[in-house]
Amino acid sequence: IGGQLPGGLAEHVLVRAQNLIAVPAAVPDHQRVLIEPLGVGVHAVTRAHVEPGEKAVVLGGGAIGLFTALVARARGLESVLVGEPSETRRSRAEALGLETFDTGSMSVVEAVAERIRPEGADVVFECVGSEETINAALATTRKGGRAVIVGNAPAELRLDGLALQRGDRSLVGVLMY
Fold first, then answer.
1. When you count CB atoms within 10 A of the terminal residue's CB, does the N or C end of the chain come out lower?
2. Is the pTM of this model over 0.85?
3. What secondary structure, in 3-state letters, does the chain show?
4. Contact between residue 73 and residue 155 where contact means Cβ atoms under 8 Å apart
């Protein structure tokens, strides 16, 4: 409800009890709101089948991107590089100990070649939801790697099919949590 069915922003919502998870009263309200974006990050990293020691890129430094990066790091990835045009969001990521680059002044391909390896990252998490960043994720994923679409993708996409097929890459979709 609120994702694929309308009604998530209603004042009251009727749901089946089996769909509820109790949050302990000790968890403050300002932390409860982080459960959903954290859940998305956990699901994205799980769908990516990451392995300790792999190198990842996260495109987008909003709440979903930051949680995805933190979960990837917690799962043992060797490096997690966050691409984000907003200086405020990059600063927030750096305060969390994440390496960043400015997608407004450096292309994703250049940043990955310089900071990870010229062949690309093992896994790239696209947390923006635009055709441009989805294609950048695919273009910067190494041969045999995974491009994971976490952001809300447009209904129709034009992709480089040759990069996908000849690179033996996987394109993975993530629906919320």
1. N
2. yes
3. CCCCCCCCCCCCCCCCHHHCCCCCCCCCHHHHCCHHHHHHHHHHHHHCCCCCCCEEEEECCCHHHHHHHHHHHHCCCCEEEEECCCHHHHHHHHHCCCEEECCCCCCHHHHHHHHCCCCCEEEEEECCCCHHHHHHHHHCEEEEEEEEECCCCCCCCCCCHHHHHHCCCEEEECCCC
4. no
pLDDT band at 91 (very low <50, low <70, confident <90, very high): very high
Residue 14 identity = L
pLDDT bin (cut points 50, 70, 90) of residue 156 is very high
pLDDT tens for each residue of 69-80: 999 999 999 899
Give the whole-angstrom CA distance, residue 40 versus residue 93: 17
Contacts with 176 (C-beta within 8 Å, 6 or more apart), sequence order: 3, 36, 39, 40, 43
> Given a cut of 90, is residue 65 above it in pLDDT?
yes
What's the rounded Cα separation, in Å, for the pair 137 and 124?
A: 6
